[in-house]
Input
Amino acid sequence: MSAVTERLPLFPLNTVLYPGLVLPLNVFEERYRRLVADLLEQPEDEPRRFGVLAIKDGREVAPVRPEGGPAGPLDGLGTVTGDPLEAMYHIGCVADVSSAQLQPDGRYELLVTGTTRFRLHSVDVTGPYLTGGTEPIEERPGEGSGALASEVERAFRVYQKRLAGAREATTHGRQQLPDDPQVLSYLVAAASVFETPVKQQLLACPDTAQRLRTELDLLRRESAVLSWLPSLPAVDLTRQSFSPN
Output
C-alpha cells in the first residue's frame, strides 16, 4: 500500500519548526510574497498551509541578481551540491497560517503554527516558488515516554536555571510545562539553545521516547557546560526565533 502524499508550497528557513510551536515571519521576498498571496486567494474554508524545511545547503535570503529581477525558486539554495532536494533537510513541519497582515510596502507579517511533520520526496522548481511532494509522518509515543518526560522536565528546569545564571538574568517564577510527553518533547526542542542540525535531529526522531532520550542527554551535557560559561543568549519558550523571510 503506497503512502498518502500531498503537494505543498515549500518555505526553506534557517530554523526548525516543530508541531504546536508558533513562528512569526516577515515575508518580503517576491517569491514568498507570491506564495502567501496564493494561499490567501484560496476559499476561507480551505487550509492555508505550507511546508517549512530547514536549509542544509545555502541561505535563507536569495542573493541580489545582477539584472535586478526577482529571485527564482532556487536562488540561494544548493550553492554547494547544486541539488535542490539536497539543499534542504527532508523532514519538515507543516505551517498553518494563523494570521497574515499585508503591509503598505507589500510585505506580509505572518504568524504560523506548526501542525504535523512530513517527509519530503520530491521538489518542483518550475513555479515562482518551490513545491514538494510530501508524506505525513505519524506521531508515535515510543516505549517509556511518560517516565522519560518526567526526567526531561527536571533536566530542563536545571538547564533553564543555569542558562539564566550564565546570562546573569533572573527566572520569572516556575513556568508550567505540558504534561503530554509529545508536546513537552517539542517545546523543549524549540526552547533549548541547540544548533540547527541538532534541532533537526530532534524533529526527525522516530518517536517521542527517542526524542526525550536525546533531549535528556543534551540537556545534561549543556547544563554542565553552562556552569563554566559567562553568557549565552536568551530564549523564548513559546515562540521560535524571528525569521526575516
